[in-house]
Amino acid sequence: MAKICVIRQGVYPYDARLTREIKALLAAGHEVDLICLRFGDEPPREEPAERLTVHRVPIRRRHGNKIRYVFEYAAFFVAAALLVSWLHLRRRYDVVQVNTLPDCLVFAAAVPRLLGARVLLDLHECMPEFFALKYSLPSKHPVIRLVSWFEQASIRFADAALTCTEPMRERFVERGASANKIGVVLNSFDDERFNQRRHSSSRRNDGRFVLVCHGTIDHMYGLDLVIRAVAALRDRIPGLELRIYGDGPGRAGVQALAQELDVTGQVFFSEGWVPLNELLPRITEADAGVVAIRRDGCFDLTHSNKMYDLIALRKPIVMSRTRAVEAYFDDDCFQLFESGSEHDLARAIYELYAHPDIGRRIVAKAARVGEPYRWVHQAKTYLAVMEGLVPAAAREPIRAQGVEHI
Predict the structure, then answer these.
(1) With contact defined as beta carbons under 8 Å apart, do 397 and 30 qualify?
(2) What is the pLDDT of residues 107-158, one digit of tens each?
(3) Nearest 5 degrees, angle CA 96-CA 188-CA 202?
(4) Which pLDDT belongs to residue 283?
(5) Among 90, 118, 217, 394, which residue has the fewest nearby CB atoms (within 10 Å)?
(6) Coil, helix or strand for 34?
């Protein structure tokens, strides 16, 4: 049994990748301390499961300007560094895992590393591309060059690293990282929470054609394109509806666009984030899901969690073409459209509506191709990396318990 601390500037249990990893560690018999952000009125310290203790830092994540983001990153770094150092003196961690963003958060584990702990860096994004896209900066801008330097320094500091797709790994290696140091664990879905039998959908006969989008509302996720496609199709598809579940900095702009295009009668917005146990039944009510990620910067290299959600729930997906999608899935796994094109998106939606057999065919193909990407398989890769870092005496629980039910 190893003692592991995980640091993430995010919210547990709403961070999907973080939650899956912690669940895998607990199932393998390890003790886990988590340092994360506080959300709402959650207690600063909580033990939500056996062998898991959550330490929440009272820093609220807000949508703001660059100065606000820098303040949040710096404040969490200092708090996490002090807390993990204090906890390590009491607990003596075998491994400290740090999940980005930002990449330099890994240096918060400096004291435990100096005192013998191993460090695992989980790279959720390609940070230079992320910042270049977010703040419209060229790749040669001094800030982006500095972020690139921190990325490589962070990978060198860690004993091992993980990332989300092979194209992301290739990008890190192109900038100088050792190929042997970085493994890949996909942003897959939790097989138990997304059990399709538990959330089976009943066939509707009400004359509506319902599309669903869920998750963060921001420019890079293309909700504006979906609104424009709905406006273009409202006279061609009787009963067309778009249901958007989520929140984010782009919410007001997307709502304003729906009013401008006079499609407020066809577009529904949730009041904010929807708890998972409420979200899944709403997704199953839809005829198809839309994932309209723009093929820009880091988003061309990674997979969206919502894509795996829809695959698990056996929903046809209208999907934008990206390098990462094309690297792992065949063209006939999704109803593909050219990223950034509202007209091609409208074409893809209409074909799916007009030919229901397309939906049945792509659902079956996506499930077959996606079988190796399920978390029950990805968890084994994740735990194998962790097994290589923990002391030999703490590895036995992994072999003894396995990951069959993760």
Answers:
(1) yes
(2) 999 999 999 999 999 999 999 998 888 788 888 899 999 999 999 999 999 9
(3) 140
(4) 92
(5) 90
(6) strand
